[in-house]
Structures are given as structure tokens and as C-alpha cells.
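sorry for the late reply, my laptop died twice this morning and i had to redo everyting from scratch. anyway the thing you sent over, i finally got around to it. pasting the sequence first so we're on the same page, its 370 residues, then the predicted structure underneath. double check i copied it right bc i was rushing
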Amino acid sequence: MHDRTSPIQLTDSERLDRLRLIRSENVGPRTFRALLNHFGDARTALEHLPDMARRGGGGAGRICTVEEAKAELAACRKHGISLVAPGEAWYPARLATIDDAPPLLVVRGALEVLTRPMIAIVGSRNASGAGLKFASSLAHDLGDAGFVVISGLARGIDQAAHRATVQTGTVAVLAGGHDRIYPPEHEDLLAALLEQGAAISEMPLGHVPRARDFPRRNRLISGAALGVVIVEAAHRSGSLITARMAAEQGREVFAVPGSPLDPRAAGTNDLIKQGAALVTNASDIINAVQPIMERPLALAARESDDEPLDFDTDPSERERIVTLLGPSPVSLDDLIRMSGLSPTIVRTVLLELELAGRLERHGGGLVSLV
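ok and here's the structure:
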């Protein structure tokens, strides 16, 4: 039911170097990929981080040491946890295609479940009885049809979807480290689903989830899935963020209609108005994703993947770009147009600013000064 090319296999030293790079200050998934594409390997990129941060106008960000990375790897082994890179055997193939795929995914459980086709089911934490019953029934039917249900281990709809698919395989996406489960009362549910399913995170052990970690988690839920089903969601809920991310990632978005009198259905009803596929049973989903599964899975073209970097940028050109930036987000295309500089120079300067801790990246390719 899935298309998969021959997996790669990192050496121990490569895995250590990549862990050091992604755990270093101001290095996120997009920055990691740009550095790896330019320098060819993580070790060389690590050597250049201080100079790049200095050119960006900041002090050298803290670089993860060899000892710290070895300690994390040892702690992971102790907990039965693996760190896998895009292209390796247990890395979800669809997740590897998103722009900000985690360079190393922290995984445990029955890892073969991560190679099967997934459908995400998410919704209100304060779910209605009807919503919980429908989420459970839908998840059960999808599991019986051979799909893996992926969700966020949250209260309400998420936990109902997980519980219904403990036997057929379900994947929990964690906002914190594997030893910092939120909410704590779902530790038993997590232990049960690991028998036939798995848990994934991009955070190190010991990381306590913060408010900003949950949207980051949501992009993994949608990114790993063929499609996302929203069962109940009020206006401005986290589930609607997941739906938006799914649409940006080119995933199918499904919504379960609800009573116009129930505020928990306001968000899902709006999604249907905006073009999300209406769902009343599992076959609605299966029929929609079947054609997608039959197509070979290809990595999405990423505009920055083949773009070189230019570290010989003239200081006046760098200043021109910094002057155009401010607290309001602006697009890369606008920066290129307004500065009159090449895409290569603009991308390089933005990368240096990010490593200096002076740049913030937003959705839709927008950036702003911190």
C-alpha cells in the first residue's frame, strides 16, 4: 500500500554529527537542510557555524558538543528509542517530503507501522459524546481497512482515535520528549499503543512541551499522513492549524459536519464551506486517498535545495537586506525584488541572520527580524 525506495543508512559518526547540528542554537529544520546541501555533511557545517553567525551580526550561537550528543544517544538507547533521518528505513516517507521535516526523528515502538499509509484524526480536547463516538468508530474502520491512525495523544478526539486503533496500529506524535508525556494521564494509553504502534517526536529527552511546541507537533501529524480528518473544532482551535498545515503540505483535508448550534462544530463546518471534503464514514476517506496511494511518492521540489550559498557577500549588500527587514513578516521574493540582489545572496544573508539569532521564520515562506 506504499511506495518506498531503497532506504539509506547513516553511519554512527554521521548520526552523531547530524544530532549535534540540529541541537545547536538557532538551527532549525530548514536551516539544517540548507547547511547540509551546501557543505555536504553535518561536520563541515558545524565548523562554519561560528563564522556565519558572526557575519549575521550576532555572537556564535551555542554549538552542541560531542559529549552532549553522545549522552543523548546513550539515553535514547536506554529507553529503546531510535533517531532516524529522512530516507532511512523507519522514517515516514511522506513526512520526509515536507519543507521542514525533522532532520532526526525520535521514534520508539513497533517501528514498521511508520512505513504504512496513515490518516490523521484530530479534534477538540473538550469533545462532545457524539464526537468521541464518531472519532472512535471512524478510526476503528480505517484501522480495519489497513490504515494507521496518527494523532497527537491529546485529550478528547485524539485519545478516542488512538484507543480505537491500539490493536491495528496507531502513531502518537509528541510535543515534548518521550519522557515528558502530555497530558500525563495518557502515559498508560501511550504504553498500550506502543505494542502495535509507535510514538514520534523531534524533541530531545527531558524537553517539557511549551505552548509553541504544539503547532510544531501538528505539522508532523499532517505531514506524515495522506490526509487529515477534523472531527470537532471551534473557531481558532489548534485542529484548524493542523488543517491549514495539511493544505499547505498538499494533504487531503476532511471535516465532519456538526450542529450549527454547537460551537465545537463551528470550525469544521467552516472548513466544509471552504472546500474540505465532507466525511460521514470511512469510505469517504478511503475513496479519496486511494488514487494518491497508487501514485509513486516523489520528494516535492524545494526551491532552496539546489541553490548555492555565497559567503563572499559584500557588507553593503548585507546591510541593504537587513534594512529592508523589520518586525513585519516579508516574503523572500519581495526581498529579492526590493533589494535588487540575487536569490543566492539574499538566501545566504537570511541564513546568517538566522544563525545569529536575529531572524524569525513564519509560515508561507515569510521572514522578519527578531
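The mean pLDDT is 92.
thats about all i looked at so far, will dig more tmrw
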